[in-house]
Amino acid sequence: MDERCSALEQEEAWKENEISKAARGIRYYQVDSAASIKRVICTQCNQSNPVTDVDLENLSLDCSECDTTLDLTDPDRIVTVSTKNHPEVAQMQYLHQLQQRQRELAMAAQGTPLQPQAPSYAQQLEALMTRPLPSSLSNLVAAAAAAPYPPRTCLY
């Protein structure tokens, strides 16, 4: 009896800890391979939801409290999921994180900021003013400059 009470107390403490982290905006991904209970904390209502085999096949889960659909392939939306018998979910999430990290490293190696920045209006205007005219326009401008001005006539 004491073991069951202790397990329930640990479960409740775990849930309170996860809810506290979620309430503070802490979003992290953790795979607990030793646990036999598979669950996901909803990021909308902080409800702990069990993950079934059907959920793992569909890679999505509907929250039992607020009906939010949680994507099990998006590690940013999952607070905790235990995947003792379903390592494919952990593998997909790991690959997602690895690809994202590789993109960040590639952009950093090129010196490209992670957030692309548009050139300022002054830089764009200067680039337009200093670029050479296409040859067809250059010839047209040269011909117009060489031509004598037509005589002015009064239309009054």
UniProtKB/TrEMBL annotation:
Taxonomy, superkingdom: Eukaryota
Name under which the protein is recorded: Uncharacterized protein
Originating organism: Aphanomyces astaci
